[in-house]
Amino acid sequence: MHFVAQPGGCEIGLRPIDLHIKGLMALGAKLDEGMAELTCEHGLIGGEVHLDYPSVGATENIMMAAVLAKGTTTIHNAAREPEIVDLMNFINAMGGRVRGAGSSNIVVEGVSRLQGVEYQVIPDRIVAGTYMAAAAITGGDVLLENVVYEHVFAIAAKLRDTGCRVERAGRTLRVSGLARPRAVNRLETLPYPGFPTDMQAQLMSVLCVADGTSIVVENVFENRFKHAAELNRMGADITIKDRLALVRGVSRLSGTTVCARDLRAGAALVLAGLRAEGETTVEGVHYIDRGYERLVEDLRTLGADIRRI
Ligand SMILES: CC(=O)N[C@H]1[C@@H](OP(=O)(O)OP(=O)(O)OC[C@H]2O[C@@H](n3ccc(=O)[nH]c3=O)[C@H](O)[C@@H]2O)O[C@H](CO)[C@@H](O)[C@@H]1O
Ligand SMILES: C=C(OP(=O)(O)O)C(=O)O
Q1: Which of 50, 129, 188, 208 could cysteine-pair with 76, CB 3.0–4.6 Å?
Q2: Does one domain contain both 104 and 132?
Q3: Domain Enolpyruvate transferase spans what residues (predicted)?
């Protein structure tokens, strides 16, 4: 019997785990009392899983469960995020037999054992995207190394719509922003290769100071606009209605004390602080630490006046 801790993560919606559980049950696990207690007496057996939604975590969880299961598992309507492909490559480097990651159908043939391996994970596309947004909101010029362009394509495309120049040379990306970004018609988050929900808050900061009005639609998580109220405290003009945000661009933001209520909201507020007049204090830095190793140091290297207190 294995006990799994209650799932955590940022509070950006209810974040149910029904798809994880349904997938594991298709491989022979039995659900006992509670939501996170599953048992399996004689090991998992490969099976067919259809995900009602291409959940990243459920795809990863089922893939990993299937690696040492007996027989073959197929995951239909799997998530296609680059991290899923990375996980496949990692498992295969350990001796697993996974194919199809990056497409909607993943096939895992169970093996009896895995071996240790040294493996380098892919560069963090959301960290890269955040620094791209920093160039956009400040009208700055940022050179990013070790970026997989295909992974940030949707972000680059949207930043180009705001007037940014994004130039690529191999794994290097140069992003230069306009003095004032342009509004976009519509920014809509979607599973990969759509625009990532983990960049929605940062782009909203950029659109806050854009010339014109933008519409942002959050399709992935049902409660991921907590940054909007904080941005409004800095002088932004955002109205929320369910999953839609109407962002009327303002010509200036003013620094004040604001509170990060989740990871990307924190990044978004730091970006807004770069543009705002006066001093901005962002509370709730522990959220930001979940997703950025060197945010303060990197931004300072780029010329920002920022410090951690
Ligand atoms: C640690 C990690 O990698 N986190 C990422 C992962 O989160 P995570 O894996 O939690 O995100 P999911 O793709 O599972 O969630 C997407 C949607 O599916 C719903 N859902 C999910 C599972 C489930 O069993 N039932 C269900 O209804 C969620 O409520 C949400 O509305 O992908 C998200 C979407 O790209 C990112 O924002 C997160 O940064
Ligand atoms: C929502 C995020 O992460 P988690 O799934 O860990 O909460 C994120 O990285 O923006």
Answers
A1: 50
A2: no
A3: 4-299
